[in-house]
């Protein structure tokens, strides 16, 4: 079988550092009957070690050449290959079929990491945990604290839905081809449904999006037409604040108060 050439359009950078691969597999601590899905298995750096510890593994892969390689290398009774785009893959259907908590792992393509994270957040109710290799800058934004320059829409929306921990930093040399950025491994564990206190989730998302769409502006301007100064004052939020100055809880309180005001 001829060597696979990494395709830039798919953001392919293949993990080759054997110690790092072992560290990630150790962090996952998989059990034989886990329902695990790997996004973007590539040349199988994680796939092989995981299959030695699992009864069965699912993978989602968009590259048809890699799909063919995987299907040739592994028996269907051991590996199910879902050929397609993870951005539209219905992870929830897989979890519902198995009737158990879904675990997701992957070295996510940097060019689609943010929209993919938002897509995956929609399956939090059927996911046990997720472990991802991402651009270090993205991980820093995910776990950023309010008031920092990295704190943004991604931070609020993911911190609302998940408990997140940055686990490992990864140098560019761990990949082939070598990317121009550093990477990191992050763990996401869904918060229980009872902890998701936004009354109207779409309104909460709309409010956060509006605030950070013009993050350099004061809230009285970025949220103009959506929230007035009087509501901010009732909640003890200064209209002169900027989007990154509010905590996740502040956004929940603001969205809930806006929902009640509209009723």
Give the CATH topology of the largest domain.
Rossmann fold
What is the fourth-level CATH superfamily of the largest domain?
Vaccinia Virus protein VP39
Mean pLDDT: 91
Assign the structural class, choosing from mainly alpha, mainly beta, alpha/beta, alpha+beta, or little secondary structure: alpha/beta
CATH class of the largest domain: Alpha Beta
Amount of helix: 25-40%
Question: Main sheet: which strands, in order across?
Answer: 4-3-2-5-6-9-7
Count of the domains: 2
Distance between the termini: 64 Å
Indicate the radius of gyration in whole angstroms: 20 Å
Function: Specifically dimethylates two adjacent adenosines (A1518 and A1519) in the loop of a conserved hairpin near the 3'-end of 16S rRNA in the 30S particle. May play a critical role in biogenesis of 30S subunits.
GO cellular component, one term: cytosol
Domain Ribosomal RNA adenine methylase transferase N-terminal: 20-192
Pfam families: RrnaAD (PF00398)
